[in-house]
Amino acid sequence: MVDNDGHLYIDESLTWRLLDGDAVIVSPQTGKIRVLNHVGAFIWQKVVDKLSISEIVEAITTNYGISPQQAQTDLDTFIDDLAQRDMIFRERPR
Predict the structure, then answer these.
(1) In this structure, is residue 48 part of a structural domain?
(2) In angstroms, what CA-CA distances link 16 with 11, 55, 67, 69?
(3) Which helix (H) or strand (E) is 88 found in, with range?
(4) Which of 49, 51, 71, 74 meets the CB 3.0–4.6 Å disulfide criterion with 55?
């Protein structure tokens, strides 16, 4: 589980766009493309908006009508997936 008072940071070299509710993320360094579904795009936008992790959990809970525990689990999975791809970080990259 992630520190809920913390923030997430996006690799600033990434290029991304919202298209029909989904997010398309391109890494110029690797040439890899990642497409996020509507929920992933919703979370991505909250990270871009600099919401804290607890605020993102609250937004997911409110927007999708799920429990805070389920929202936290889903967010943790999202973070882990994108962190493995070096697209998102739990601490500000140096």
Answers:
(1) yes
(2) 11, 22, 29, 29
(3) strand 88-89
(4) 51
